[in-house]
Design brief:
By secondary structure, this protein is mainly β. It has two domains: 150 residues, no CATH class; 80 residues. Helices cover 7% and strands 40% of the residues. It contains two helices and 15 strands. The strands form four sheets. Strands 13-12-11-10-9-14 form a six-stranded antiparallel β-sheet, with no helix packed on it. A four-stranded antiparallel β-sheet has the order 1-7-6-5, with no helix packed on it. It starts with 13 loop residues before the first helix and ends with a strand.
């Protein structure tokens, strides 16, 4: 990629950044925010007789033709004691919310507890001070590929990438492999700032490029994955292509607890 990266970038809006930061912290402690997740439990049973129990959630669970079936559930989860959940369905007793998720044809029950210790002890998200230095020009290079991405729980997930984002920092040009989430590009990456305690991987989102392939990256908006708030999330981790040898000293660092 030999195109010079000289296009102009937006000026840092500190007020907008502070609002973004406050919203991030507020969402972290919502009733079903990432600090409330206490478990993601893969249901392997396929019959009533083999129904499984899981720590911190009521009932017994098994796979059925209608998704996940839960039995022995108290009210208000179910008036009959039995319920069937499809991926995305939710039931809530005011303290613990249960929802079903699907990955590669497998179903899991996920539990969010309003009294989770990680939610009760949450103090905030540590960040670097925002700086104009970390708003950098970038150019998109289309290169669709199917790559193997390791999820936080060790599962390999084949993922389609959209291409590469090239950007300069301190006179050198770097690149990140990005995916298209339907409204913007995003990348999961790690960098040398982890040596100073920054979470082992982070995320960045950026707008689609213009007709010339030009866009920009605002690393001040680098955000922690849900996995940083609860180890029960299944977040994608960086591929080898997205390991940066420099320290991105911008955006969110780590989660703070008391």
């Amino acid at each position: 990629m030999n195109k010079p990266l000289t296009q102009t970038v937006p000026e840092l809006n500190t007020q907008a950044w502070e609002l973004w930061h406050k919203e991030r912290e507020a969402k972290a402690v919502e009733a079903t925010g990432p600090t409330a997740l206490i478990g993601t439990f893969w249901v392997t049973a396929s019959t009533h007789d083999g129904a499984e129990e899981f720590p911190g959630i009521p009932g017994k669970w098994f796979n059925s033709a209608n998704g996940l079936t839960g039995e022995g559930l108290p009210q208000p989860y179910s008036t009959t004691g039995t319920i069937q959940l499809q991926p995305g369905d939710k039931i809530d007793d005011g303290e613990v919310l249960l929802t079903a998720i699907e990955r590669q044809g497998n179903l899991a029950i996920r539990a969010f507890n309003r009294n989770a210790l990680s939610r009760q002890t949450f103090q905030g998200i540590a960040t670097f001070e925002p700086s104009q230095k970390w708003i950098v020009p970038a150019t998109f290079e289309a290169d669709t590929k199917l790559v193997d991405v390791l999820s936080a729980d060790g599962r390999i997930i084949p993922t389609t990438t959209a291409g590469w984002i090239h950007f300069p920092i301190n006179g050198s040009t770097y690149k990140l492999q990005v995916t298209d989430n339907g409204s913007s590009f995003s990348a999961v990456f790690t960098d040398a700032s982890t040596a100073n305690g920054v979470h082992r991987f982070r995320n960045i989102s950026l707008g689609y490029p213009d007709a010339q392939g030009d866009t920009f990256i605002d690393f001040n908006r680098t955000w922690l994955p849900p996995f940083a708030f609860s180890e029960h999330f299944l977040c994608p981790t960086p591929t080898k292509a997205n390991v940066l040898g420099i320290a991105i000293e911008a955006g969110e660092k780590w989660v703070e607890h008391n």
